[in-house]
Amino acid sequence: MSEQLHEQLSADVAIIGGGLMGCAAALALRRMNLSVVLLEQGWCGAQASGVNYGGVRRQGRPASQLPLSQRAYAIWQNLPELIGASCEYTVSGHLKLARTEQELATLEDYRVMASEYDLPLEVLGRAALRQRYPWLGEQVAGGSLCAGDGHANPRLVAAAFAQAAKHNGAIVRENTTVKTAVFDGEKFHVLAGNDLTLRAKFLLNCAGAWGAEFAGQFGETVPEYPIFPNMWVTEPMPKLVVPNVGIVGGGFYVRQVERGNFVLGGGRGSGQLDIASTRPASASMFASMQMACEFIPALKNALVIRSWTGVEGALPDHQPVLGPSATTPGLFHAFGFSGGGFQLAPAVGEVLADLVVRGSTETPIQAFAIQRFSTAS
Ligand SMILES: Cc1cc2nc3c(=O)[nH]c(=O)nc-3n(C[C@H](O)[C@H](O)[C@H](O)COP(=O)(O)OP(=O)(O)OC[C@H]3O[C@@H](n4cnc5c(N)ncnc54)[C@H](O)[C@@H]3O)c2cc1C
User: Fold this and answer.
1) Fewer CB atoms inside 10 Å of the end CB: C or N, the chain?
2) 376 has a pLDDT exceeding 70
3) How close is the Cα of 49 to the center of ligand 1, in Å?
């Protein structure tokens, strides 16, 4: 009886996790004709990938992420061709504000660095900035505009990547929790709930905040910890703010969507990883909203209609783990994006496919190597 119920699947590539990383990888691999089975413990895109702020931003990333981010930027431009939907992706510009002349100087230093990665930024002083954006408050000392950055609706993006992966032939199993994965020297044996065993030559660990758990099963210890960024949204307001706006230090970030609602983020909530329970924290949310109101006074009259958070895996150096395992051939990790993986994900999918198919990628990923923690046991 139990033998009849037991299901066995095999594929070239097994993927743990149906967030944006896993779904983008599944699609990229199918486009390279490999067979793929993706296992997701809940619903694809229901965790960080589906509840994030929606910032599609290169500005502000460290130099080590800019080549990956530029690769992602090129893919975002072709979203409808790739996944059949634009997902409300808007090239609105990303404006980073400075409170002081000192902060403005850091934006100028960043502009110089970013130009080496073909990322054009325009740094504006107080008068020029307020003339261009009259909705800004008086406290602002200046800002830096990345005209090519923007935002998108996260509720749509991962689901659309999952759909596109399925449409291209990937097997996507939702409500299927991976319990263990082992390597027998030739193949991976992935044991999942629903009495499913999956055998594959390659395994991708795209388990987000749960990624370190699977790295640990292969003797790799990574100091990943969960973070829970606060998010909230206002009632629809008259259209005012075009760019996606942030501030040096990250005290708040805000974008206004087509319907007029302002989506905001700032501060951290709390949660419990084992039961995927998350909760925004009102004190840090109010402090961030207060700061946002100082810089965009029109927000003072906005009614907040909903708040939420989600769980994201973070690492002490705020860089993800992306690349081959240090212990196990055929295992590749992509987790711990530390609050910045939404924009990167389409390129991460392609990089993972490069690694599986060719064993290397043209995109520099050394800074993200799991070996930097040097704790393989
Ligand atoms: C509130 C919030 C705001 C953010 N804002 C931005 C932003 O504006 N811009 C930006 O670039 N980034 C942002 N991020 C970060 C971005 O959302 C993440 O970096 C990105 O979505 C990570 O994708 P992922 O696929 O690694 O993780 P996830 O989307 O969390 O996917 C991992 C998946 O693995 C599954 N999984 C875990 N364990 C198992 C198991 N045992 N078996 C099967 N499946 C399993 C989970 O259910 C989950 O669906 C934000 C994150 C949060 C939480």
Assistant:
1) N
2) no
3) 4
Residue 146 pLDDT > 80, yes or no?
A: yes
State mean pLDDT over 287-315. Answer: 96
- Picking from 49, 70, 83, the residue whose alpha carbon sits closest to that of residue 342 is 49
Which run of H or of E encompasses 178? strand 178-183
Q: What is the tens place of the pLDDT at every residue in 355-371? A: 999 999 999 999 999 99
Q: Let me know: does 198 contact 118? Beta carbons within 8 Å.
A: no
Reading the block at residue 23, the tokens are: 């779904």
Find the 48 Cα to ligand 1 centroid distance in Å.
Answer: 3
Instruction: Give me 118's structure tokens.
Output: 């073909």
> By alpha-carbon position, which residue is closest to atom 12 of ligand 1?
340
Pair of tokens at residue 119: 């990322």
* 3-class SS of residue 112: helix
Joined together, the tokens standing for residue 177 give 């929790």
Domains by residue range for the chain, with CATH: 2-52+155-222+316-373 (3.50.50.60), 91-150+226-314 (3.30.9.10)
Q: How far is the CA of 340 from the centre of ligand 1 (A)?
A: 10
Closest C-alpha residue for ligand 1 atom 46: 17
> Cβ of 297: how many Cβ atoms within 10 Å?
13
Is residue 68 in contact with ligand 1, taking CB distance under 6 Å?
no
Handedness of CA 69, 312, 189, 157 (dihedral sign): negative
Distance in angstroms (rounded) separating the CA atoms of residues 370 and 353: 18
Asked if 216 and 27 count as a contact pair (C-beta separation under 8 A), the reply is no
Asked whether residue 3 carries a pLDDT value surpassing 80, the answer given is no
